Amino acid sequence: MQYFVTVLLGLMLCQERRTLSGLQRQVAEHRSLSGLSRFLAEAPWSAETVAQTWLARFRDQLSPMVEADQRHQRQTRPTRPGRPPSPIVTGYLVGDDSTQPKDKAQTMGGLGWHHSTTVGRRVVGHSLVQGLYVLLGRRCPVAPQLYRQRGTCQAEDVPFHSKIDLMEDLIRTFEPVAGTRTHVLVDTWYAAKRIWRAARARGFLITSGLKSNRALRVDDPTSQSGWRWQTLSQYAATLSEADYTPQTWPSQTEPHPVYVHIVQTRVRRLYRCQVLIVRQSLTAPLSEARFFASSDVKATPSQLLVHLATRWEVEILFADAKEELGLDHYQVMSATAIVRFWTLVMAAYLFLDEERARLRQTQQDHVTIGQARREVQRRHRRHLIDWLVDHVEAGCSRHALYDRLAA
To answer: pTM of the entire structure?
Structure first.
């Protein structure tokens, strides 16, 4: 527990790289570097249990908020003949992966060649498969998972699990807040029938990106069956400007206009769904159009855009975890230590999200994870000053205080 607190406090306060030595320097109580390394690599604690604990805490915190939102929906819904619809509170389970480059690493466990969108090429590093639960403005990471390529698994003598396997397992085992509807959001990499089947088996909705070479079913009177398969790029080329409707892309900071075409059909190797084509401008080339599929066949265009925009939350998670908590700063050697480090970073992120929610209530304004972390640092500095004053008033010498803080 002492090392657990040391790492979490170090992640909050550290202004340098979050290596083990960098984290160790943030805490005056002496913790050896070798002990900190053993805590991550060998100590008898479970990263999965830690994640399940914070998920249970999140469900306990959000359950009253869900009930309050449901009561509000019942009280404000219009009076109409017939049975009133049940209130719906939607939580989003967002899944994605992120490459953590380790170009200079040679002996770290789990290393492989993974594509990095930051540099636009394959790099040596680790692939983090991550889920994020978004509900009523709150965000809760799920347990991080390390994806290892087949060759890496063979070299390290561990079972191979593809990214699809990891995401499917996440969907099948995820436990949402009671009384909510879960909507899975993934990008084009995970637009596989196995992922859609897993979501449907749980009664979840799902929205995923689509590549332009995926095929959808279109009507064709000249065909014997009355329909044929056509790639999304070919289908988009047949549309005119009148086939698109202007919509507003939802964003807390910069809402902007987009043009959307929606058709309800079937996508090959998926199920019946709503297919969306989103363009930033009707004068932009079709190669810049983006394609999506959603099992939410009753959703309006504005609701579908909310689904799509919410998927970006996992990208913000990766950016905040790297910038504010050093998600990719680790220099540990074993795969176990790497996953444990990621787990503690996500635990720190959840703490900051709770702090952000508290600040948002008092300030009535948008609050970022960085602002929440700086508030925690300011609070810690106030406590440190109080501690120094108490010790000076108690007769402690400045040299003793210096030795204590410089240890």
So the answer is: 0.93
